Amino acid sequence: MRFRLTPRETSFYDMFAASADNIVTGSKLLMELLGADTPVRVEIAERMRAAEHAGDDATHAIFHQLNSSFITPFDREDIYSLASSLDDIMDFMEEAVDLVVLYNVEELPKGVDQQIEVLARAAELTAEAMPNLRTMDNLTEYWIEVNRLENQADQIHRKLLAHLFSGKYDAIEVLKLKQIVDVLEEAADAFEHVANTVETIAVKES
């Protein structure tokens, strides 16, 4: 790691870890959504909304700290990018749950469970990786695995689209379900953006 003669603001590490832990909470709520009936889905959506608000608060705290810190642990633009991408993940997960409830989707198509499983795994890896930003150790496997998961998510998404356009669903249902699976795919992309930002930071700090 690059040697520094100046002290660094270390609270960013804790805030990134807290933001990632909140994403794990969101991914668990997505898992709960699978197979839940309508009243339970409404309750899950309320808890997801609360988690999304907590994520917003965490992001704003990072931005506030960034604006008030003279010295930062790594480049300011990377801190901003990392915080924003973590926030995007929560936004997409919350949107997916909200759409399921608003559209009153009775049954999610086969394959959505695989999308959510990928997101849950990516969430775990991200939460495990954030504390390692302090030392920049043991991060290579993290971003490699998240990129692999994103490729897997792409394949699942394409199969889901093929299934939705197979003629099994009417046009309105296709529009509803496509929007949900597209948002879940955007969440997978956001996990990859986080991993890519972490890789950029690690390269700069090496």
TrEMBL record:
Family annotation (InterPro entries): PhoU-like_sf, Put_Phosphate_transp_reg, UPF0111_domain
One Pfam family from the record: PhoU_div
SUPFAM superfamilies the UniProt entry points to: PhoU-like
Entry similarity comment: Belongs to the UPF0111 family.
The name this protein goes by in its record: DUF47 domain-containing protein
Biological source species: Streptomyces incanus
